[in-house]
Amino acid sequence: MTFEQNLERLEHIASSLDRDDLSLEQALTLFEEGIAKLKEASSELAKAEGRVAKLVEKAAGVFEVRGSDDGG
Fold it and tell me: What domain range is 20 assigned to?
């Protein structure tokens, strides 16, 4: 799933957990899924933050992304 899909699913899970008609087992299952989706989204966010951290402003004011293959 993409970061956006994970966030959308997390929103759905959160709204489902707010309902009064869930059994304890259903709530626990949704909670476990929510934790898994949160970990996935956090991982994707960390990857994106790593890419942003590689942005370097050159003296001329031009931005470039340094890849791991250029000695970094």
Answer: 3-70
DSSP state of 71: T
Q: Are 13 and 33 in contact (CB under 8 A)?
A: yes
Residue with tokens 């759905």: 12
How many other C-beta atoms are found inside a 10 Å radius of the C-beta of residue 6? 21
The domain total for the chain is: 1
Residue 31 burial (CB count, 10 A): 12
Contact in structure between 34 and 10 (CB atoms under 8 Å):
yes
**Mean pLDDT of successive 10-residue stretches along the chain, which has 72 residues:** 94 96 96 97 91 63 62 48
